[in-house]
Each structure stands twice: as structure tokens, then as C-alpha cells.
Specification:
By secondary structure, the protein is mainly α. The protein has two domains: about 230 residues; about 80 residues, no CATH class. The chain has twelve helices and five strands. The chain has a three-stranded antiparallel β-sheet with strand order 3-5-4. A two-stranded antiparallel sheet has the order 1-2. A hairpin with a 2-residue loop joins strand 1 and strand 2. It is elongated. This is ABC transporter permease. Keywords: Membrane, Transmembrane, Transmembrane helix.
Length: about 325
């Protein structure tokens, strides 16, 4: 079974591994060479141009790479690798031979999934290690893997979780529908829906920390390293203030004494009314907890789709 599976899928496996290897070499080389380039330029004017363009270029490059890892990669694995796994055998009629031998249907299926899933998981792990070096390369990006959902999904353990989940979703629809094109469409739709829900609900995975606005927006608060959830005003009784128009004018009357948040006209106006500006956020030290919670959700969903695939394989044609 292992040899047959390898013969059937070796082209995709070798192509995928080669692609990841090439991407890894380019990322590691560029991430290691970029600090030398920036140091040589002194982060100042470059000959004939402003060095800021280079930092912006690097950020755009990392953002694009993170997007490919987070969303495009799983879609390709699920639709191109998982969805045709069973459907292609049925459409070609070769399942009549494969499923009437001494090897059971489930053993046939999970041998294939295991052989394909292992390089997929390794690719996810290696990809996370390829993306991570960039966040210490460009100034201001060190906190982005937690704040930016695209970076967050492309680092830590989530690339592995997303890729394996995508593969199993594809296998489920392949076994259930047994037609390659419809299975691919259903796989893409479910993956897109799942990614969207996880993105929209990420802030709700844990109860946020609430601090006064002056603390969060101070230099020590380092907002770039956090996930901002909400910014609002409460009165002395703890009720949420929905109309703060009484202090809108103060926001633009900024004097020289308003060098800090505490001395700002807006804060003084809030104090006169007995109001307090509050911010809900997730601090940067929750990065790994968010990673593990999200990975746990994906693992649970992966298990459900795997059980569904086993049940779907029992159906007789």
C-alpha cells in the first residue's frame, strides 16, 4: 500500500517539497541579508532614494508570504490533494480493484492520508520557521505575529494545524461526494468559511484585559504588541457612555502641555464628567495560549471530519 501510494502521488509530493525548499532558501537568505543591507545604509538616505521604501518592501513581502501560508496553502492542499483522493479512484473505476483486495477500505484510505499528511505537516512546521526570522528583521514588526491575524496564522503551530485540517476536509468530501470537481468546490467553501469564522472570533477566545486608555496608549503600553478589542467610555457607576459629544471639541484643542495622555484636553474633559476611557485588549504574552486554543479547535474539527470520512467510506456504490 505504501509503495502504491508513493507511486501515485510522488509527483505532487516531490513538487511540493521542492517548492517549499526553494521558498525556504529564498526566505532564509533574504532574512539574513536584509539586516546587513539596512545596517550598511544606516537606516538613513540611500544613494538616490529613501531607505524607507526598502523597509516597506520587506513588510509587504512578509505580509504576502504570510497570506500564502495562512490561506492559499491550505486551500491548495485541501482542494488539490485531499478532494481528489477518493473521487479520482471512483471516477476512473480503479476503486473496484483497490477495494476488493485483502486491504480494507479504511486501511487503504488512511495509508494514503498518512503518507500524504506527514509531508504536509512537516511543510507547515518548516514554513512557520521560514516566516519567523523576518519579524526580527524589520523595525516595528516584532509584535506583529500576535497582532496581525495573517502573521499569527503563519507562525507557531498553526500552519501545521491548518494544513492537516485542510487535507482531512478534502478527504471527507472526496469520500462523501466521490466526484472530484464538486468535492473540490465543497472543500474550498468549507475552508473559506472556517478561516473566516476563526478570524472574526479570534478576539473572543479569551476574556480581554481592561485598562485605562492612558495606560494602553502610553509608550510603555506598546499597542503594536497587542490585540486591540474595544475602546469605550464608562461613567462613575460603571455604565457605558454612548454619547461623548460633550468632549468632542476638547480632542482638537491640544496645547503644548498635552504632551502625555494624562494631560490631554479630552482626558480632562472626561474627568470633569466623571467618565473614564477604557481599552479592552489581549497582551502579547497570550500569543502561545491563542495559538494552542486555535490549534485545539482545528484539531477537534479535524477529528470530526476524519470520523465522517470513515463513515462515508462504508457506503457501497
Amino acid at each position: 500500500m505504501v509503495w502504491i501510494t508513493w507511486r501515485q502521488h510522488r509527483a505532487f509530493i516531490l513538487f511540493g517539497l521542492g517548492l517549499f525548499a526553494l521558498g525556504g532558501i529564498l526566505l532564509f537568505w533574504s532574512a539574513s541579508d536584509a539586516p546587513r543591507y539596512l545596517a550598511a545604509s544606516g537606516n538613513g538616505p540611500c544613494p538616490g532614494r529613501d531607505c524607507a521604501w526598502f523597509a516597506n518592501f520587506l513588510q509587504g513581502l512578509v505580509r504576502g508570504g504570510a497570506g500564502l501560508v495562512s490561506y492559499v496553502g491550505p486551500l491548495i492542499v485541501g482542494a488539490v490533494l485531499g478532494a481528489p483522493l477518493v473521487a479520482r479512484e471512483v471516477e476512473r473505476g480503479t476503486h473496484r480493484v483497490a477495494w476488493t483486495q485483502s486491504v480494507s477500505r479504511n486501511r487503504w484510505l488512511w495509508t494514503k492520508v498518512g503518507l500524504l499528511g506527514l509531508p504536509v505537516a512537516v511543510a507547515g512546521l518548516v514554513t512557520a520557521q521560514m516566516v519567523a526570522p523576518w519579524f526580527s528583521t524589520v523595525k516595528g514588526m516584532s509584535g506583529r505575529p500576535f497582532q496581525d491575524v495573517g502573521y499569527f496564522n503563519a507562525t507557531g503551530v498553526l500552519p501545521v494545524a491548518f494544513l492537516v485540517f485542510a487535507l482531512i476536509v478534502g478527504v471527507f468530501f472526496s469520500a462523501a461526494i466521490r466526484r472530484a470537481i464538486p468535492a473540490m468546490g465543497a472543500t474550498v467553501a468549507v475552508l473559506a468559511l472556517t478561516f473566516g469564522v476563526l478570524t472574526e472570533t479570534r478576539d473572543s477566545l479569551m476574556k480581554p484585559v481592561t485598562v485605562p486608555g492612558r495606560e494602553y496608549y502610553s509608550t510603555a503600553g506598546s499597542p503594536v504588541n497587542t490585540i486591540w478589542v474595544a475602546d469605550y467610555v464608562r461613567d462613575a457607576a460603571g455604565r457605558r457612555v454612548t454619547n461623548t459629544s460633550a468632549c468632542d471639541g476638547a480632542a482638537v484643542v491640544v496645547q503644548e502641555r498635552a504632551a502625555t495622555w494624562d494631560a490631554s484636553p479630552t482626558e480632562e474633559c472626561y474627568a470633569k464628567h466623571g467618565w473614564q476611557n477604557l481599552v479592552d485588549y489581549h497582551p502579547a504574552d497570550r500569543y502561545w495560549r491563542f495559538q494552542l486554543i486555535t490549534a485545539g479547535i482545528l484539531a477537534g474539527l479535524t477529528g470530526l471530519f476524519a470520523v465522517g470520512a470513515v463513515l462515508a467510506m462504508r457506503r457501497r456504490d
